[in-house]
Amino acid sequence: MSGISIYEFDVLIPTTSAASPSEELHTIPAVVYEWLERQCLLASNDNRPAWLRLTQRRGHRAVQVTSFVGVIRAPDGYQLEVLPKVGKEIGAGALKARQLLIEMLCCLQTFRHLRMDPAKLAAARMPLLDIFIGEFLSAVGHVVKRGLRSHYTTEQGNLFALRGKLVMASHLRQNLYRADRFFTEHDEFSIDRPENRLLHTALQCALKLTTSQAHQQLARELQFVFAEVPISIQPNLDFQRVRLDRGMGYYEEALAWSKLILDQQSPVTGHGGNTAPSLLFPMESVFEAFVAKHLAMQLTRPLHLKSQARSHHLVRHREQNWFCLKPDLLIKNAQTALLVLDTKWKLLDGQKANGAKKYGLAQSDFYQLQAYGQSYLNGVGDVVLIYPRTEAFEQPLPVFEFPRTKGLRLWVLPFCLTSRQLLIPGNVLFKTMFKDACEHLNSSIGNDQHQPTCP
Predict the structure, then answer these.
(1) 384, 308: one domain
(2) Does residue 326 lie in a domain region?
(3) What global pTM score does this model have?
C-alpha cells in the first residue's frame, strides 16, 4: 500500500492533471482522486463534517483537505496522512509534525491509552495508522501474556450422554423414540466471550491495514492465540455486552484500541459508496483538549479550569432559554468565574495589524467573546482568545477594549505547543493566576503589554 503525507488545507490533483505540483499542491492517482471527489459530494448531501472540499487550481479541478487531521484511507489501500499545518509553519517537517500531533491526541479522551515515549516516537518513522496499529498490537500482546479470560455460558443440546440437567419438555418432544439421546442444559467454560471476539476481529482488520511487515508478523502470531475464538458478527452489539469482571482491567486498553479500529461511526475501511473518513480528528477539538490539559497545570490553587461551561444562554424567549453560551474554557475560584477563554486553531500574523488583515483575527470571534464576557463576567473582567504560537505570532497582542463595555477587555495570547505553556501578559490578574508560569517564563513586572518569549 502506498500513500503520501500532506498538511491541513493542502490541495490534491490527479496525476492526469495538467497543473504542476508545488509545496501545497500534490498529485495522487486518478482513481483515488475520483474517490475523494465522490466523498466531497456525499458529505455535502449528508450534512457530514466537511473534511474535504472541491476547489480548483490554475483552471483545473482539485480537492482540498480542511482542518481535519489523521488518516484518510481509500478503498484500494492508498493512504493520505494529514498533519497539522503548524508543522509546516515552524519548519518542523513531517516527522516532528507527526510527533506533535500524537502528543496532542494523547489529550483526547479517545486516545487516553496512547503512551508512546518521545524517544520511541522519534524513532518510529512510520505513518500514523501504523503507529496506532502498533499500539493496539502491543496492548493485545499484554492481554495474551496475562491470559485470555474464559467464562461459563449456558448451552443446550441433544447429546449422547447426560450432561448437566435434563430439559424434560424438549427431551420428550425430540427423543420419544431415541433412547440414546438426552436433551440437556449445561454450563460450558469457554473463551468465546465478547471481549475476545472483539480483539480477534480487530486483529484481522489490523492485519489488512498495516503496511509494516513487523506489525503483520506480530498480528499473525497473536491470531494463533485467538484461533478458537470466533469473529464478532456484530461488533457494536458485542461492545454493549463487554463486562470487565474483577481482575480484567488489563483488557481495557486493548478494547479501547479495538473500538477505535472497529468504530462504525468512523470506519477504517469504507462500506459501500457512503464511505466516511477514517481516523480523522478536527484540529479545533484536538487543540482545545491540548490547551485544557496543560493550562490546568499552570493554575495556582484554589483556581480550577472548567471545560465547556453551559451555565448561561444568549436570550430568553417565552420562559425558555435559547442559544447556550459554551466557552471552551473557564477559570473559576469556587463558584466565581474569573476568566473566559476560547481556543482557535488558526495561524495569526502579529505584524499585520493594519488594513483588512487585522492580524488574521475574525470579527465573529470578538462578538462571541463579548457575549461570553457579558454573561459569565457580568461585563467586567478579561476574556481571552488563544491561538497556536508560530514565528509570526510569538507574543501576546496589545489588549483590546470594548468602547461600550468599559469594564471588559479582550486578550489574544499565543500557546506554545513545544513548551505547553500559555504565554501571558504582565497584567496583574494574569500574574496572580499563572504565578508558576510567570516564574517559569522569567516574566518581570511590567505594563499590560509585557512581551514574554517561549522557552
Answers:
(1) yes
(2) yes
(3) 0.78
